[in-house]
C-alpha cells in the first residue's frame, strides 16, 4: 500500500548535501510563513515555491536557486503560465559561470 504524500513538495530521492538542505529549508520556511500572506496567485503548475524546492533538491543550491529565482520573475504580469516542470537532467549548455542561461531552462531542450 502506497503512503500518501506528507507534503506538497517533491518526494523523490535527492542527495542531502548541506547546500540543498539549506535551500529547501528556506523554500519550506517561506511556504509555512509568508506564502499565506502572498496568496495563491501562481500562474504555473507546480507553483513557484514547489518548483524552487524541486529544482534545488534535484540540481543543487546554485543551479536550482537560479532556476527558482527566474521562475518567480516569469510569474509576473506579462509572464508565462501553464505547466512548467523541473527538468530531470540539465541541458549541456547550462554552465555554473553563466547563471543567466537558467532563465529559460525548459526552452531549446
From TrEMBL:
Q: What are the protein's UniProt keywords?
A: Cell membrane, Membrane
Q: Please tell me whether the keyword Membrane is annotated for this protein.
A: yes
Classification via InterPro entries:
Membr_insert_effic_factor_YidD (IPR002696)
**Location of this chain's protein in the cell:** Cell membrane
Q: Name the domain of life this protein comes from.
A: Bacteria
Q: How does it sit in the membrane?
A: Peripheral membrane protein
Q: Which is a Gene Ontology cellular component entry for this protein?
A: plasma membrane
Concerning its family, UniProt says: Belongs to the UPF0161 family.
Q: Which NCBIfam families match?
A: membrane protein insertion efficiency factor YidD (TIGR00278)
Protein's recorded name? Putative membrane protein insertion efficiency factor
User: What organism does this protein naturally occur in?
Assistant: Nitratireductor pacificus pht-3B
Higher taxonomy:
Bacteria, Pseudomonadati, Pseudomonadota, Alphaproteobacteria, Hyphomicrobiales
Amino acid at each position: 500500500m502506497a503512503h500518501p504524500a506528507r507534503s506538497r513538495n517533491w518526494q523523490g530521492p535527492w542527495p542531502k548535501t548541506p547546500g540543498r538542505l539549506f535551500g529547501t529549508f528556506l523554500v519550506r520556511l517561506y511556504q509555512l510563513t509568508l506564502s499565506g500572506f502572498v496568496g495563491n496567485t501562481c500562474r504555473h503548475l507546480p507553483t513557484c515555491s514547489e518548483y524552487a524546492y524541486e529544482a534545488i533538491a534535484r540540481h543543487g543550491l546554485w543551479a536550482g536557486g537560479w532556476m527558482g529565482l527566474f521562475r518567480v520573475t516569469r510569474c509576473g504580469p506579462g509572464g508565462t503560465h501553464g505547466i512548467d516542470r523541473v527538468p530531470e537532467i540539465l541541458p549541456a549548455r547550462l554552465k555554473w559561470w553563466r547563471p543567466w542561461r537558467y532563465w529559460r531552462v525548459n526552452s531549446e531542450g
